[in-house]
Design goal:
Layout: H1 13-45, H2 51-60, E1 72-74, E2 95-105, E3 110-120, E4 126-136, H3 138-144, H4 149-156
Antiparallel strand pairs: 1-2, 2-3, 3-4
Length: 158
């Protein structure tokens, strides 16, 4: 009698080991992505001052007779910042901001503004953030140069 060989389809040990190795690498890659996503969520949940919003406040603020916008270094009153005269219920109790406005061409109203935010981070250390931008404010130039007193009020309301 002749023994019949049965054709058995099966995976070899090498194929199984390769498949397990690929599976382990894929699992570790997925776990790393999940960890990075959780870290990103934690960072996004921290409430940090927005430099763009402070720059916008500077751009739309009225010049000195009606408002407080003037050249030089100033630390404006802001109810959102504890260091700027904010009360007990501020958004950023351990932060303060200041701005420095320098005239580049006072006759035309071109200024460079630097907004600096300083906040206390964990461990008592201080972090400082800065944004620099140019602004065109002929109404501020008019007030700074002592231009027509009557027209200063008209251009301040725009």
């Amino acid at each position: 009698m002749e023994a019949h060989k049965k054709d058995i389809m099966a995976f070899t040990l090498a194929e199984v080991l390769i498949a397990v190795g690929i599976f382990v690498v894929a699992i570790f890659a997925i776990l790393q992505l999940v960890g990075q996503g959780l870290q990103l969520v934690r960072v996004m949940q921290q409430q940090r001052p927005d430099l763009g919003a402070l720059a916008a406040k500077t751009l739309v603020e009225l010049p000195e007779p009606d408002g407080t916008l003037a050249t030089g270094l100033s630390e404006p009153m802001d109810e959102d910042f504890g260091g700027n005269g904010g009360g007990d219920f501020t958004l950023y109790p351990d932060a303060r901001w200041q701005r420095d406005i320098m005239s580049l061409d006072a006759t035309n109203g071109l200024y460079q503004a630097i907004v600096t935010v300083e906040e206390q981070v964990g461990g008592g250390d201080f972090a400082e953030y800065q944004i620099r931008f140019l602004m065109f404010r002929p109404d501020v130039a008019e007030v700074e140069m002592g231009g027509a007193q009557g027209s200063g009020a008209a251009s301040g309301g725009r």
